[in-house]
Amino acid sequence: MAKKEENPLFVGITNGDELRRNILECSKGILESLKEHERFKSIKEEKTKLIHQFKSDVKEVLKLTNKVKANLPKVKSVGIKKPEVEKIKEEKPKMVKVEKPKAKTELEKLESELGEIENKLDSLS
What we know:
2 helices
C-alpha cells in the first residue's frame, strides 16, 4: 500500500492565469499605495523644514527690530498727537411705500367673470 504524503510538493491550481493576474493587480495596488505614502512622507518632511526655517526667520526679524528700537532716539510722547479720524455718516435711502392693488375678494372675482360672460352672450345675439 502506498502512503499519502502529508506535505505534497506540487499542488494543482485551477485558473492559474486568473490567479496570477489577481496577484499582480494586488501587488500593483500595494506598490501605488507605498508610492503615495512616500510622497506624503516627503511632503511632511518638507513642511517641517519650512516651519523651522520660518521660526528662525521670525526670531531673526524680532532681534533686528529690537536692535532698531534700541538705536532710535527717545522722544517724549506728550507733544505728539494722533490725527483724529472724521466719521462719515452714511445716509440710508429712504423707503417709499408703494400702494399695492388690493386683492379682489372671491365675490368680486365671481362678479367680474359673470359680467364677462354676459358681455359674450350679448355679442352672440
